């Protein structure tokens, strides 16, 4: 493998594009990811996140632009690049016929790794994934969270420097998600570079040092979660509910309060530096909401502002 210069980005994309006929799934995006960073791709369905991940993983060829992984083009040096990648797909694709530990061993054999390495490594990864007591269980006997942890453990069998995670916690209950977050934090602390896509804003805030918001194949914004909130929202948000029939009509009477107003079918959002002061102004105007809530601005506010609130199939 060619030496990768210290300090150089482990992933570099310049004007990266992927077209399917006239459809531009990825449309000229550029980003660099330094070693050890947790980098997120955030966007609605069809935004181009998974397509970008497949190009990074070397399983989908780009239409145009440049892409390097540790200084190598994944299309020209696929096996070398994949030897240093761990991949966690959207859907668990574990071998249901094999027992839990054997899933790790057999997968490791695909990399040509010797049994003298794989035995101890499998035991180490089962402990990491909190699955030691399930080592001899059948895969189909595992819960959803356990299967997800096993899929992540399997992706680590070759000690990858970069881990690609495509919506790692979709479908998991809150407890299982938090256990998974803890495992990913530990990997990051060990120096593994994490690249993840997610639909969950709290997950992006928890896990990502930096992220890009992608929509229609293009990057809409880039930065740390805190920076994106500062740049695209206010410090606080006041949520008011006047009843579904009145929210839109009352919105006209709320004009001028806060920095920005957004009427929704079920509530009215007022973006303000000081949510309590905004609520006092609402009361001073003689308006009486059924419920009111002052909260800090979140990544979800940024996401919805940048990509819109209409549903994407």
Detailed description of the structure:
The structure is a single chain. The protein has 313 residues and is an alpha/beta fold. The chain folds into 2 domains: 11-223, Rossmann fold (3-Layer(aba) Sandwich), CATH 3.40.50; 234-297, Alpha-Beta Plaits, CATH 3.30.70.920. Helix content is 33%, strand content 26%. It has helices at residues 49-56, 78-82, 100-109, 115-128, 144-155, 174-189, 201-207, 225-232, 247-251, 275-284, 299-307, and strands at residues 11-20, 23-33, 38-42, 64-69, 85-88, 162-166, 193-198, 210-215, 218-223, 236-241, 260-263, 268-272, 291-296. A 6-stranded mixed beta sheet has the order 5-6-7-3-8-9, with helices on both faces. A hairpin with a 2-residue loop joins β1 (11-20) and β2. α3 (100-109) packs across α4 and α8 (225-232) crosses α11 (299-307). The longest helix is centred in the middle third of the chain and has 16 residues, at 174-189. One of its GO terms (cellular component) is plasma membrane. InterPro entries: AAA+_ATPase (IPR003593), ABC_transporter-like_ATP-bd (IPR003439), ABC_transporter-like_CS (IPR017871), ABC_transporter_ATP-binding (IPR050763), P-loop_NTPase (IPR027417). Keywords: Antibiotic resistance, ATP-binding, Cell membrane, Membrane, Nucleotide-binding, Translocase, Transport. GO terms for molecular function: ATP binding; ATP hydrolysis activity.
């Amino acid at each position: 493998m060619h030496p990768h210069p210290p300090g150089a980005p482990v992933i570099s994309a310049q004007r990266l594009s992927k077209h399917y006929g006239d459809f531009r799934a990825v449309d000229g995006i550029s980003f660099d990811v330094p070693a050890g960073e947790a980098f997120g791709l955030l966007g609605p369905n069809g935004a181009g996140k998974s397509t970008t991940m497949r190009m990074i993983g070397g399983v989908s060829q780009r239409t145009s632009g440049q892409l390097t992984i540790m200084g190598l083009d994944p299309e020209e040096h696929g096996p070398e690049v994949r030897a240093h990648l761990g991949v966690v797909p959207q859907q668990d694709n574990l071998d249901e016929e094999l027992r839990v530990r054997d899933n790790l061993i057999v997968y490791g054999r695909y990399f040509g790794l010797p049994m003298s390495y794989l035995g101890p490594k499998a035991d180490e990864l089962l402990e990491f994934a909190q699955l030691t007591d399930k080592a001899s269980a059948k895969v189909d006997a595992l819960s959803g969270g356990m299967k997800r942890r096993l899929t992540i453990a399997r992706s680590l069998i070759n000690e990858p420097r970069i881990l690609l995670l495509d919506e790692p916690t979709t479908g998991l209950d809150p407890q299982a998600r938090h256990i998974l977050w803890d495992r990913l934090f530990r990997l990051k602390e060990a120096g593994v570079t994490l690249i993840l896509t997610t639909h969950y804003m709290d997950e992006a805030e928890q896990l990502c040092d930096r992220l890009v918001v992608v929509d229609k194949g293009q990057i809409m914004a880039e930065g740390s979660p805190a920076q994106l909130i500062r740049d695209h929202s206010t410090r606080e948000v006041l949520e008011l509910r006047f009843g579904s029939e009145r929210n839109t009509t009352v919105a006209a009477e709320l004009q001028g309060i806060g920095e920005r107003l957004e009427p929704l079918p079920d509530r009215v959002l007022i973006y303000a530096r000081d949510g309590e002061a905004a609520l006092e102004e609402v009361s001073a105007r003689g308006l009486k909401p059924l419920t009111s809530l002052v909260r800090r601005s979140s990544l979800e506010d940024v996401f919805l502002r940048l990509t819109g609130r209409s549903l994407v199939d």
